[in-house]
Amino acid sequence: MPRLGELLIAAGVLDREQVEEGLRAQIMWGGRLGTSLVELDHLSLDTLAKAVGRQCRLPAALAWHFDTADRALQERLPAEIAERYSCLPLLRVTGNQVVIASISPLDERARAVVAGELDVSPFQLVPAIAAELRIRYQLERIYKIPRATRFLRSRNTSHVHFPQFEINEVVADDVDLELPSELATGTIPPPRRHMRLTTSVEDCIIPATVDPVGAAEPLPQRDRRTYVPTLADAKPLDPPGRLGRIALKRITLGAEGMTKPADPSRRMATGTDPPDNVGSTLGAAARAIRISTDRDQVAELVIGTLSRFVPACRSAVILVVRGDVAIGWTGFRRDGMPVPDIGVPLDEPGLVPEVIRQNIGARMFSGQLTPIDSLLLQSLGGEHGDLLIEPIPIAGQVMCAIAIAANRGEELSSVATISMATGAAFARLMRESAR
C-alpha cells in the first residue's frame, strides 16, 4: 500500500513541503497524517477521505453521506462498538446492504461484530473510508462519545501553523493510482437512486437504493463546532493583580531556603513506577529518550524519567503547542490521581506563554502566580508550592513544554537535562519521518 503522503504528491494534490510539514506536525500533535494536513489547511476533509479511500482501495464517505445518514440505523449500533472500531453505519442500500464508514478498513473480526449488531451478514456490509476528524465528530454527535482534546479546534484559530525548519525530502515513488475493477460500477441493475462514494480521479459508484426511513436531515458540521476547553474558561472574572508580560529568568536556588529532596521511595507506594527501559541513571534515561522510536515512547520515557530521577516532582504534564493553546498530552501524579485534560491559553498572561515565547525555563511560588498559572497548579494537584515550566525547543522553536508541581524550593535541576533530550528526540523523529 502506498504511503498517504507519497500518493498525495504523486497525484499532484500536495507538494513535498506541505507533506513534510504535515509529517512534522504529526510527530508533535499525534493522530494521523491526514488529520494534521487538514488542520494545517492543506486538505479538506472530503479530499482527505478520497485520498485515503484510494490508498485503501475503498470508496470514500463524504460530508453529504453523513448529513443524509439513516439515524435509526445508526442507533442500532451500540456506542461501545462504534467507539471500539471507530465506525458508524450510514445508509441501507440495494439487497439490504449497509454502508459502514470507518477511519481505516475493518478487519474480519470487526466486520462480523458490526454486522451482527446490525442484523446483516458481514458480506452485506459495504465498507467506506472517512476522515479521522469527521468520524470523531460523528461519534460524538450520534453516540455522545466525547472527542479527545486532540481532535478539537482552538477557539481563535481556524487553522494552525507549524514552524518551518530543514528536514530531508520525502521521496515519492511511482504508485498505481488505478482503482481495482471490482470497485467499478458492477452488473447490479440501475437503482432508483445512486449513492456516490467518491475515490479520487475516478468515481466509484456503488449502485444503492437508499432506504429513506429514518434518514436524518442534513446537519452542516460548521454549525456544531466544539472548541478546546482551556483554563481561561474556568478562571475567576476580573482577577486582581492581572499581569502583563513576565520577565523570566532561570531561578538557581542556593543552600539557604532549600528543603531536603523528597524521598524517592515514595513513588513505590503511588503506582508511578517508571517503565523498565528508563535506565539506571539519569544519563542512561536521557540517552533512552534521545533514541526513542516514536512519539509515544518519548512521552512514556519522559514521564518515567521524571518519576524516577526527579523525586521533588509531585506531578507533571507534557504540554504540546497547537495554535493558540498548549494542550496537555500525558502526565502523572504521585498521589495516583489522574491528570485531567489541560488546555493552557497562550493569549493570557502566565508562565506557559512567556516560557514558550522566550525559550527560558521559569519557576514561581504559588503566591506569585497569575490566575491561569494557579489553575494549572491546581490541575496538577497542588494548591501551594512551586510551578516550574521547562521549554522543549526543537530546532530553536518551542513546540512543547513540561509543567511540574513541586514543594517550594526543592531541587529540580535535572528537568533541564530531560527537556534537552526530549527536544533532540523529537527533532530526530521529524527528520526521519520525511525520509
List keywords for this structure.
435 residues, 11 strands, Beta-Lactamase, alpha+beta, 14 helices, 6-stranded antiparallel β-sheet, 2 domains, 17% strand, 3-stranded mixed β-sheet
What percent of the residues sit in helical stretches (DSSP H or I)?
A: 25-40%
Distance between the termini: 17 Å
Query: What are the low-pLDDT stretches, counting only 5+ consecutive residues below 50?
Result: 167-223, 235-271
Strand residue percentage: 15-25%
Give the neighbour order of strands across the main sheet.
8-7-6-11-10-9
**Mean of all residue-level pLDDT scores:** 78
**Basic shape:** elongated
Structural class: alpha+beta
Note the total helix count: 14
The helix/strand order is: HHHHHHHEEHEHEEHHEEEHEHEEH
Number of strands: 11
Largest sheet: 6 strands, antiparallel
Quaternary state of the chains: single chain
Report Rg: 25 Å
Count of structural domains: 2
